[in-house]
Design goal:
The complex is a heterodimer of chains A (about 140) and B (about 160). Chain A has about 140 residues and is of the alpha/beta class. Chain A folds into 2 domains: about 30 residues; about 100 residues, Nucleotidyltransferase, domain 5, CATH 3.30.420. Chain A has 4 helices and 6 strands. In chain A, strands 1-6-5-2-3-4 form a 6-stranded mixed beta sheet, covered by helices on one side. Chain A is elongated. The termini of chain A are far apart. Chain B has about 160 residues and is α/β, with parallel strands linked by helices. Chain B has one domain. Chain B is about 35% helix and about 25% strand. Chain B has 4 helices and 8 strands, in the order ααββββαβαβββ. Chain B has a 5-stranded mixed beta sheet with strand order 4-3-2-5-8, with helices on one face. In chain B, helix 3 packs parallel to helix 4. The longest helix of chain B is centred in the first third of the chain and has 17 residues. Chain B is elongated and about 85 Å long. Classes of the chains: A alpha/beta (about 140), B alpha/beta (about 160). Chains A and B meet through helix 2, strand 1, helix 4 and strand 6 of A and helix 2, strand 1, helix 4 and strand 6 of B. Strand 6 of chain A pairs antiparallel with strand 1 of chain B.
Chain lengths: ~140, ~160
């Protein structure tokens, strides 16, 4: 009978180190998780530059435009071309005006793919200028190499 | 005596199964949603619509003009800064900008020099960013020395 009860002990094993490790892993991933991923887009691979630094204060009233490699523009989950972008921008500006701000307060953040043609980006800027927008930010990846 | 023994044995062996289940679920959730965050920054460009503002009246100096030309694949072929041909060398571009500005001291605010980038339509955007990087400053150790902060684009060429 005594021998049997010893076997039960062996079968249980010591789970403490495993649980320690698993909690450590959870803590690691929890700390590093980034919930603010709404800004990024899978179709856009940003060019990189050594000079940029992540901004200390986030831009006020950003309008984020993703420009994919084929020149298609993504604003708030909808696809636009340079011709139809005006409609999308007007919607965004209506929101900004509803908050009691002027068009000059808005910042247009352009996240363009590195292999897209420069002219497409210029077209985006031109369309935004026609809507009286004047503050633009060209988003690039920080390059530490 | 028998009864006491049984009780002790059961108490010391806490049932961990359900907790481990939940903990593993959490772990899997965090592993799946994990994505390395790339640090990003901005080059700010202030470009009001031409003709409707006072910024076009620049009393001190004309903007520098940077012309970028591309081949049919969008690759940079030549750059020229104020008609000085620079080939495709961005370091050369930076050296010329330093020379033209005359000082490497950072100039703050609205009074700094201005550059207008005139690029071929099909040039790849990456080259535009590289030229903006070259004209807007350089790194000295960990410090960033600023050159030109006012950047604008010419009309798109079709």
């Amino acid at each position: 009978m005594k021998v049997k009860s010893k076997k039960v002990d062996l079968a249980e094993g010591d789970l403490t180190p495993m649980i320690d490790m698993v909690f450590q892993l959870i803590a690691f991933f929890m700390v590093l998780i980034n919930f603010a991923q709404t800004e990024s887009n899978d179709r856009v691979k940003l060019p990189s530059s050594q000079l940029v630094k992540p901004p200390e204060v986030p831009l006020e009233f950003p309008i984020i435009l993703h420009v994919a490699q084929d020149g298609e523009i993504i604003l708030g989950g909808d696809d636009y071309t340079a011709e139809t972008l005006r409609v999308g921008l007007q919607k965004e500006l209506a929101v900004i005006k509803a908050e009691g701000k002027t068009v000059e307060d808005a910042n247009v953040v352009i996240r363009a793919h590195k292999d897209t043609s420069a002219g497409d980006v210029q077209e985006v800027i031109r369309v935004a200028q026609e809507q009286q927008l004047e503050n633009f930010a060209l988003r690039v990846k920080e390059d530490n190499s | 005596m028998k009864i006491r023994n049984r009780g002790d044995a059961e108490k010391s062996g806490l049932n961990m199964t359900s907790m481990i289940d939940v903990v593993f679920l959490l772990l899997i959730f965090f592993v799946m949603t994990f994505k390395i965050v790339e640090l990003e920054g901005d080059f700010s460009v202030r470009m009001p619509l031409a003709g409707s503002d006072s910024m076009t009246m620049d009393p001190t100096d004309l903007p520098l003009k940077l012309r970028l030309q591309a081949d049919e694949n969008g690759k940079l072929t030549t750059m020229s800064l104020n008609e000085i041909n620079l080939g495709t060398d961005f370091d050369q571009l930076r050296a010329n900008v330093v020379e033209l500005i005359g000082t490497t001291a950072p100039v703050e605010g609205e009074d700094g020099p201005e550059i207008e980038i005139d690029t071929d339509y099909n040039l790849r955007y990456e080259y535009v960013i590289r030229s903006i990087t070259a004209v807007s400053g350089y790194k000295q150790g960990k410090e960033v020395v600023k050159l030109i902060e006012k950047i604008k684009f010419a009309k798109p060429r079709r």
